[in-house]
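Hi support team,

I'm opening this ticket because the web form for multi-chain structure prediction keeps timing out on my end. I have pasted the exact lines I submitted so you can reproduce it. The total is 682 residues across two entries, so I didn't expect it to be a heavy job. Is there a limit I'm missing, or should I split the entries? Thanks in advance, R.K.
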Amino acid sequence: MITVAVDAMGGDNAPDEMIKGAVEALAMRSDIAVILVGIESVIREKMKAYSYEESRLRVVPASEVIATEEPPVIAIRTKKDSSIVVGLNLVKKGEADAFVSCGSTGAVLVGGQLIVGKIKGVKRPPLAPLIPTTNGVSLLIDCGANVDARAEHLVQFARIGSIYMEHVIGVKNPRVAIVNIGAEEEKGNALVKETMPLLKECADIHFTGSIEAREIPSGQADVIVCEAFVGNVILKLYEGVGKALIGQMKGAMLSSVRGKLGALLVKPSLKQVMKKMDSSEYGGAPLLGLNGLVVKAHGSSKSKEVKNAIIQCITFKEQNISEKIRESLNQEQNRRNENGV
Amino acid sequence: MITVAVDAMGGDNAPDEMIKGAVEALAMRSDIAVILVGIESVIREKMKAYSYEESRLRVVPASEVIATEEPPVIAIRTKKDSSIVVGLNLVKKGEADAFVSCGSTGAVLVGGQLIVGKIKGVKRPPLAPLIPTTNGVSLLIDCGANVDARAEHLVQFARIGSIYMEHVIGVKNPRVAIVNIGAEEEKGNALVKETMPLLKECADIHFTGSIEAREIPSGQADVIVCEAFVGNVILKLYEGVGKALIGQMKGAMLSSVRGKLGALLVKPSLKQVMKKMDSSEYGGAPLLGLNGLVVKAHGSSKSKEVKNAIIQCITFKEQNISEKIRESLNQEQNRRNENGV
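Hello R.K., no limit was hit. The queue was backed up. Here is the completed structure from your submission:
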């Protein structure tokens, strides 16, 4: 049995979709329990609309809510009874295996580090969403936790990302590439040029070199390493270009009778593509390298995304990912000590 | 009459598509002349396939070719008789108003600065392609010339980009935004945080604040300011996501009889969208801030892109963009001097 705490108050559609998603997750899997964290009276009232196994769904009260625009560090320090702080404390105390939130990204990232804490040896915990590609999914690491990262951080991202893709997603010997502006050796900014030789030296990862942004959607790498500013741009542009293209196509098709008829016929095919290329199908983004699992899902998440984010926690826990990250970093430290680095 | 020198040897489809594009441009506009630069015997042989007004198409021989993988600075310094160096010298000497190349981006950028030279006051000439949006085009500035830019460079990009959008594209009082990872004031990396207040102080541009990558495709800003690494990622991901989505849709539609029938019906609508969202429709990317116009078009350009890149040079020349950039930077310098900065 795995226990997932869910921030019932975070996100554009809280608390309704959070509660619905939790109930859906419980119905789908019998090996999970959910703790809804938030304003108890509101949650209890909404829960009345659903039927669920009562022993697997409980409420832990939290009287405050952290808004998206609040400065994260201050919010985490002052709102001790917020759903995010209370939820993260459940993970810290071992009462929950994971915490899922659709609320303030900044607060979840800061709170994850301050409350749940980093695995010994982890320099900066990366936020690593899965992005859909034409032949599966890739892990984009890092996407928001650490702007202005250094080379040593990127090397850890590569290691941690490899472990995640291999053990949670099941990709054997995942291909790791660094985002760059060209394939040639001399290309790149200072950070990429510094990181490249360090990645080449890592015997424990399958580093394949540079990846240009245009190759990302066709799945040319399993683990895509970049610093958070670039990762965030990639993640959001992915969403933006897709949305714009689909919108334009719909508009164009519906502007003529011929197009409208065609649209009816191609609808099932397009739906299938949309589902495949829709990142919400793949749950939230885990904040990796912590002493417990913290998952940040999209602020606009509906029950489906919440359910997927909860389900995703099962493999993470089963595969003991935090322990594997700890071991990998330990081994690396030992290698460095032996070599007198 | 405007004279455009075209690198006949640069790009995946050289020299055939370069020559074809030049001939097409001549047929479209009577106020331009084209100089094809490259290996004379090869060009003359290929030219036989076309009819054109001979007084407006001439060949200037260049015996060498710079390959994409050559280190740019060395290539420009040693291959004095390459099509890129010879073409850029035509601009320097005033024999051509502009130079268009689909060859090595690095060599064009380095050569543009070393041979044609920067406008006095320009710190780093940015490469600024137009990208299609759902309601027109936006200028993405900078996209490849200057990795690891500083705040003062980004401020110049904003000014130069405003001038380009206003006078070449005809957008009145263009909205300028800086690429960021969130709309909140405290978000961003060190570079963005440093640049933001400087942009706010610019009285001569219409600065609207941060733009998240997801808002770019819907045309939320006319001039999108970013450093080159991020710009390059945006440009290439734009292309990659579009290609992947279209490919997936085609595959899905053609996998069933119903889909195939629908595909026939929606084809004209989709073609219309493809044309609108296809960046090759908008010519090449100008390298702005030089004492003359240098345009870098995509390495995979066909005759259509070459033609569009040539045509684009007309407005640039007519509007005297280099002079306007010079004036704008002069005025800014005078303001700074008056304020004793």
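A quick check on our side: Chain A has a mean pLDDT of 92. Let us know if the file doesn't open in your viewer.
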